[in-house]
TrEMBL record:
Keyword Cell membrane on entry: yes
Protein known as: YitT family protein
Any single Gene Ontology cellular-component annotation: plasma membrane
Subcellular location: Cell membrane
Cited CDD domains: YitT_C (cd16380)
Pfam families documented for this protein: DUF2179 (PF10035), YitT_membrane (PF02588)
PANTHER family: UPF0750 MEMBRANE PROTEIN YITE (PTHR33545:SF9), UPF0750 MEMBRANE PROTEIN YITT-RELATED (PTHR33545)
Gene3D superfamilies the record matches: 3.30.70.120
Length: 286
């Protein structure tokens, strides 16, 4: 049995097209007008434009050309095909979209909304199993030789150097706001990729495990799993009930447990995404 995506290929390219449009709006209309450098090749392009008036789209293309040539030679064309499309789409959007100063001089709004818009765009590109090239690919190439470091670590270092360059040229104040924007981008991107349908995971330690489990399964119509555990202090073996419910249902779980066993020990944690019956369905192609 082979696992594959049921999503048509054109949907991926649509995601890349729309996602790069969002990114270009953030760059052209928020970051560039107030010289906020948030890392990446677009950050370098903002710095270059400040000294030479070379447009962002042209710098982005010129920086990516050698990166893609190296990528095609090391990894093969199939590895860079989607990323090549998304990089080209971003450069085209940077060229055709007008430059407007949406946030004027309000740096905190620029950092937050720029991060949200850019994060949505990057998340859509990642959902299409692509990137926009730039420092992502540079980090991947360097990791080929610096195997003791992860791609994420190398990427963070490269982007940090770009932000520091922006701080040197445009001032520390803008760089600090850029860090806020980078944080917002990462949070929004993670939400897009990992899903926004948060659930709750509950571990219930009780001496009335059968009653609690039955109540959860019959009253709430939710599944429950018994995990074998041993108390390290008492050396007694017991079952820990594990169940996953929606955010609204966790209140009912705690009420059920409290009614049956007020002395029960309950651990509740956040779950980013749940696949399976009763939650997000997934399919296999046979």
């Amino acid at each position: 049995m082979e696992i594959s995506s049921n999503r048509p290929v054109y949907i991926d390219y649509l995601l890349m097209t729309i996602g790069t449009c969002f990114m270009a709006v953030a760059i052209n209309s928020i970051y560039d007008p107030i010289s906020m450098v948030t890392g990446g090749f677009t950050g370098i392009a903002i710095i270059v434009k400040a000294y030479s008036n070379i447009p962002l789209w042209l710098t982005n293309i010129m920086l990516n050309i050698p990166v893609f040539l190296i990528g095609a030679r090391i990894k093969g064309f199939r590895f860079i095909a989607r990323t090549l499309y998304s990089t080209a789409a971003l450069s085209i959007w940077l060229y055709v979209l007008p430059t407007m100063n949406i946030m004027t001089e309000d740096y905190i709004l620029a950092a937050i909304f720029g991060g949200v818009i850019s994060g949505i765009g990057i998340g859509m590109v990642f959902l299409a199993r692509a990137t926009t090239g730039g420092t992502d690919m540079v980090a991947a190439f360097l990791q080929h030789y610096l195997k003791h470091y992860s791609i994420a670590q190398i990427l963070q270092l490269i982007d940090a150097l770009v932000v520091l360059a922006g701080a040197y040229i445009f001032g520390l104040n803008r760089a600090l706001y850029a860090i806020i924007s980078i944080f917002v981008v990462s949070q929004v991107t993670d939400g897009i990729i990992e899903g926004l349908k948060f659930s709750k995971l509950a571990y219930i330690i009780t001496n009335h495990q059968d009653e609690v489990a039955n109540a959860i399964m019959t009253v709430m119509e939710r599944g429950a799993t018994g995990l074998h555990a041993t108390g390290m202090y008492s050396s007694l073996e017991k079952k820990v009930i594990m169940c996953v419910v929606s955010k609204k249902e966790i209140v009912q779980v705690k009420e059920i447990v409290t009614q049956i066993d007020p002395n029960a020990f309950v651990i509740v944690s956040d779950v980013r995404e749940v696949l399976g019956e009763g939650f997000m369905e997934y399919k296999f192609n046979k």
